[in-house]
Amino acid sequence: MGFFSWIDCCDSKKNTKSALKTCYVLVPEEFTDILGNHIKENFYDGMGHFGGYDIFELIAEWNKQVLSEELLEDAPKLEDFGGLYGFEKESLRREGKTEAEIEAMDLAQKQEFYDMAIERRERLVNSMRDYKAGMYSDDLELKYGDDWKREIGNYIAESEKLPYPIKITYNEDAIYEMCPRSERDPKQGE
Known about the structure:
The protein has helices spanning 32-35, 55-62, 86-94, 99-132, 137-144, 148-156; strands at 23-26, 38-41, 49-50, 53-54, 168-169.
């Protein structure tokens, strides 16, 4: 697992990496009757948990009505995937494999990674469809695993098409509708 951090939606010079500063997840007006204007986090854990909520699950909930394949990145292409590492190819050469055999093995490895990515995308699209259609949470969990909602939120979080993107700030008085989206911190994990 990685460390998730975002750029402050009110101050682009700040990010959410500091566990020692109180930050706030801004809540869209449509959901303030349940959550209030913001969710306060005193010690951010780096895993997307704020005030007892999972930011990715919130994003999936807030955007449930617009869930569709169009929110995802473009479908994977075979050429997007690497095959064997250089050291693996060298090892195969030392074992006496021909370049044609190594090339075939390299392509087979690419194909395996590509097939896994396609399968994962199809599973995600199906879970989005089932969630949007109103399948019960327990049934979704049985079908897609414990983290099904977090996976949806994580995959759609960067979409420019979301009506309710992530907005995190250190400004307690900020209002969701008045702030731009929080971009993922390009230096997260550093």
